[in-house]
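Researcher: Go.
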Amino acid sequence: MPKTEEGEREVKGLKVGRIFKGKANVGRKAIGILLVVMMLSLAGCAQKQAAKNEPAAKNEPVKTVELKLAHFFPATHPVETQLVQPWAKAIEQATKGQVKITSYPMESLLKATEIYGGVKNGIADIGISCFSYTRGSFPLSEVFELPGITYNNSKVASRVAWDGIRELNPQEVQDTHLLMVLTTGPGDLYTKTPVNKLQDIKGMAIRATGLSAETLKTLGANPVAMPQSEAYDALSKGLVKGNLGPIEVLQGWKQAEVTKYITKTPFLYNTLFFVTMNKDKWNELSPETQQAIDKLNEKFFADVAMGLWDKQNQSALDGAIKENKMETIQLSQDEAKRWVELVTPIQADYVNRMKKQGLDGQKALDLTKSLADKYNRQYK
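Model: Structure:
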């Protein structure tokens, strides 16, 4: 092809175009490399900044878990003043303020009979009440309240119950997290008229709950179910003529003011209390916090809870009973034997009832008797 001026311009144009196109490609590559370098640099800065900020995050205050505790005892009762308040304070200190417990005594949050269900459903976070207030809900645990088993004191009865429940691990308490149990230990009859023999309580209206009510019915009395918080008024108004319970009720619940006689019946009575926590609330706590609380539970059970009623009973003996000049009646040996023979079949009935529910009542009964023998020797 002949070279013309116009053709030469076209050829040069093509060359220039290729040159510019090549430069443009190089430019785009350079910009891409520059962007990658910038992004890596920014990422590195961010990591360094995060590392700088990490100690600050660790120093942020831990969220406080506030727990509501419901029980039915008066605010002046040793359960509140000697167990709940010191225990709550110790937990707050051990968890460095992470767990705070506010107590609601004297049924101010839940009625005594509603406390376990209220804890289960989250109305209260922790609750203290009697298993016997909702009889039938805790069938296997009734073994610790059976008549005919003698406990020297509340230390024995509480240790038997806590060891027994942890070994039996009954399904009935799995819907909350059980923190500890404690008991009143042996109890007696407190009446307006003297009870020296079995005939004296025939048809008598006596406040009692759970198995204690069945025990009194077997003896011919007329049991009336109600919590201790209602017993004073019922006794003062004559709605009931007596009460079956630990001696401490004569002082802690002021029942020495409305009864006159004490009949010693240590083979009839033992009441079991639970201290339990909402399961979801418990599971929200860190493993370290749970471990700290478990450790304190064991300490307060051993140092305070298991012997709490022994101290109260002695205080009542030295105080309210003397002040109100109550008369103590000791059943004769033959008379006491008659009472025991009448109530002992309740143990066999318990085993049969458990069998119908698919529960090993005989194992629970044998374990309870064995533990009672063991701890009666230990705690005189």
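Model: The two ends are 129 Å apart (CA to CA).
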